[in-house]
Structures are given as structure tokens and as C-alpha cells.
Write a structure and sequence with these properties.
Number of strands: 12
Structural class: alpha+beta
Strand content: 25-35%
Radius of gyration: 18 Å
Helix content: 10-25%
Distance between the termini: 53 Å
Oligomer: single chain
């Protein structure tokens, strides 16, 4: 039992320290005690519809593991996002900044699509714990209510963003609920 516990603890230490992933680039425009407003640049991502959590993740992970037309392995980035589009849930992996439309390998799997996510302003609330739907919904509601109070126009469905491996202890995890927003009137934020 001690040996198994030692292996688990060692694995947790390695995964929490050894996972320095490139993160989607943004600038914090405004921050308060509940959320922050970020300005994101355009970014490339791969996307698939969610049929069930494991297979969607696996399709995207296979793409970055070399299951693409160039057989190129691509480094993992953060966050992994989920958002509803046209009534279907989708999952996205952002691609490293070294890629552009000209040098990105085409997916071998027709369920995986490359997309350019236009830059813009996003409100994000950060929380720890499990990335469960219940935890996400709770924080999404807090953020949405705060934005409504400030009369900030929400432009997108809620976005669920996760930053850590499933082996990271819940207390140490970084999760976010986000909305794309319109901040033409910067006095509101």
C-alpha cells in the first residue's frame, strides 16, 4: 500500500511541476475581486463535437500526437475549452503560437477541424476544484450575474476552460468560466 501511495504522490508531483504548457496569449484589461476582463489575440485551434468526454479529448489528443497529414507531433497548450455551437457541445485545443494557416498540419480524422478563433474581449472567473458541470455552472452563474449587474453585453455562450491534467489535485487545479463580451463602453468595466 505504501508503495502504491508513493507512486501516486510522485506522479502528482511530476505532473504538477513538469507541465509548463504554452497558454493562449491575452492581456488583462481590468480585474476586480470576482473576475477579470482579457483581450485575446486571434488564435488557431482544433475542434471536435463532443459525443462523450473521453472520445472527444482522444480525437484532439491523437491529432497533436501525430495523427495528422504531416505525422507531426504538436505540443499541448492550455486551456482546453468547451463551448456550445449550433446546439452541440464542442471541445477545442489551442495550437502553439508557432503555427499559422500556412504551416498547420491538416487533420487525418474528419471529425477534427482547424479553426481561427477571432480575438476579442472575454470576462473570466477563475476557480479551483473539479472541472465538473456543477462547479462550472456555479461559477458561470456568478460571472453572468456580475456582468449583467454592470450592464456588460455578453456575446457568446459560456466557455468552460481547464488548464490542468486530470492527475492534478483538485485544490491545485485552475478552471475558468468565460464569456466573450462587448466592451465598446469601457466605462462599464
Amino acid at each position: 500500500m505504501k508503495k502504491i501511495l508513493s507512486i501516486i504522490i510522485l506522479g502528482l508531483i511530476i505532473t504538477s511541476k513538469g507541465m509548463a504548457y504554452e497558454e493562449a496569449n491575452y492581456e488583462v484589461v481590468k480585474k476586480n475581486e470576482i473576475y477579470e476582463i482579457r483581450k485575446y489575440s486571434d488564435r488557431l485551434a482544433i475542434e471536435t463535437e463532443i459525443s462523450n468526454q473521453g472520445s472527444s479529448f482522444r480525437k484532439l489528443f491523437n491529432y497533436i500526437s501525430g495523427n495528422n497529414e504531416d505525422k507531426e507531433e504538436i505540443k499541448m497548450t492550455t486551456p482546453v475549452t468547451q463551448v456550445e455551437k449550433k446546439g452541440n457541445m464542442t471541445m477545442q485545443f489551442y495550437l502553439p503560437s508557432k503555427f499559422n494557416k500556412k504551416n498547420i498540419p491538416s487533420p487525418s480524422n474528419p471529425d477534427v477541424k482547424i479553426l481561427n478563433i477571432k480575438g476579442g474581449y472575454y470576462a473570466a472567473i477563475t476557480y479551483s476544484g473539479r472541472a465538473s458541470d456543477k462547479n462550472f455552472t456555479r461559477h458561470k452563474n456568478i460571472l453572468e450575474n456580475e456582468l449583467i449587474k454592470k450592464n456588460i453585453l455578453i456575446l457568446s455562450p459560456p466557455i468552460k476552460a481547464t488548464y490542468n491534467s486530470p492527475f492534478t489535485l483538485p485544490l491545485l487545479r485552475r478552471n475558468e468560466a468565460m464569456f466573450e463580451i462587448n466592451i465598446k463602453d469601457k466605462g462599464k468595466i
